[in-house]
Write a structure and sequence with these properties.
Helix content is 34%, strand content 23%. It contains four helices and nine strands. The strands form three sheets. Strands 2-1-4-5 form a four-stranded parallel sheet. A three-stranded mixed sheet has the order 3-8-9. Strands 6-7 form a two-stranded antiparallel sheet.
Length: 141
């Protein structure tokens, strides 16, 4: 299983979760999709291919069937990956994802937004809701 965290950005939590899966007897790989070498430092324009490459590697080197697990923003990412790579990914676990993909953010702590998606696929933004649309979504729910 390939696992990844949410927007809080603590890879330590992802590693701790991976350790629990490993202790339960599962092959698991924890992957960071930002704030690491070769990945964006912000929550904007993150290529979904970063995770897909890890899944490809696992399929070639570890097991025929690969599942993915993501929480919060990582849950949104897991759902998108499952739909974009449905021939590659056998199982998707999305813990507490939002029901829409959010706008990119240059600063999570300061809530500064960019005119793009958090995630890209093949170099193009995935469809996202702007912060104004978020407000409407939350008020209607």
């Amino acid at each position: 299983m390939v696992i990844f965290g949410g927007s809080a950005g603590s890879f330590t939590l992802t590693e701790m979760t991976a350790e629990k899966f490993y202790e339960a007897g599962m092959n698991v790989m924890a992957v960071a999709y930002r704030d690491v070498e070769g990945a964006p430092s912000t929550l904007s324009g993150i290529p979904v291919e970063l995770i897909a490459n890890a899944v490809y590697w696992c399929k070639e080197n570890v097991a025929e069937k690969i599942g993915i697990w993501g929480i919060s923003l990582g849950g949104q990412l897991a759902l998108f990956l499952g739909s974009l790579y449905n021939d590659l990914i056998s199982c998707v676990v999305a813990i507490n994802p939002m029901h829409f993909l959010q706008q990119g953010m240059s600063s999570f702590k300061k809530m500064e937004f960019e005119d793009c998606s958090c995630f890209t696929f093949e170099g193009k933004d995935l469809f996202y809701c702007s912060v104004q649309e978020w407000t409407v979504c939350f008020l209607l729910n």
